[in-house]
Amino acid sequence: MNDALAKALNDQMNFEFYSAHVYLAMAAYCSDDSLDGFANFFIVQAEEERFHAMKIYKFLNDRGRRATLAALGEPNNDYTSVLHAFEQGYKHEMQNTERFYHLSDLAMNDREHATINFLKWFIDEQVEEEALFDSIINKLKRIDKDSNAFYMLDSEFAGRSFTPPAE
Ligand code: FEO
Prior knowledge:
By secondary structure, the chain is mainly α. It has one domain (3-158): Ferritin, core subunit, four-helix bundle (Ferritin, Up-down Bundle). It is built from 5 helices and no strands. Helix 1 (3-32) packs antiparallel against helix 2 and helix 1 (3-32) runs antiparallel to helix 3. It binds MU-OXO-diiron.
C-alpha cells in the first residue's frame, strides 16, 4: 500500500481509540445518574471501538506497517440527557462511516485489494452501528416522559455484553 493509505489507516486506528473515549465519557455521564444499564451500553460500545482499533493495528502490522499511537482528543463530557448522548453517538457514527468511505476511495485509487477487502467488514459494521443508534433514539423519543418505559430500557441494556466476532 502507498504511504498516504497507510497514514490514513493509522489515523483511523487512532480515531477508533478516540471513539472508545467518546463512549466512555457517555458511560460516565449515565453512571453519574445511576443509569447503570445505559452506562453498560456505552461501556460495551467503548469495548467494540477498542476492538475496531486493534483490528486495524493488526492489519497494519500484517501489511508490514507500524502502528503509531497518537494523543487522544478530549471527548465531550457534558450531556443534557441520555437522548442527547445517543444523538451525539449517532452523529459520531455517521462521521465514522464517511471516514471509511474515504478510506475505501483511497484504497481503490491505490488498487490495494487487500485493504479494500479489509475495509468491507467495517463498512458493514457501520450500517449496523448507525441502525442501532437510530433505533434507540426513536425509542427514547417515543418513551419521552414515560419513566417506567425509560427504566425498562435501562434494565434491558444492563444485559448487553461484548463478544468479539469470530474471525
Ligand atoms: Fe468503530 Fe462505532 O465504529
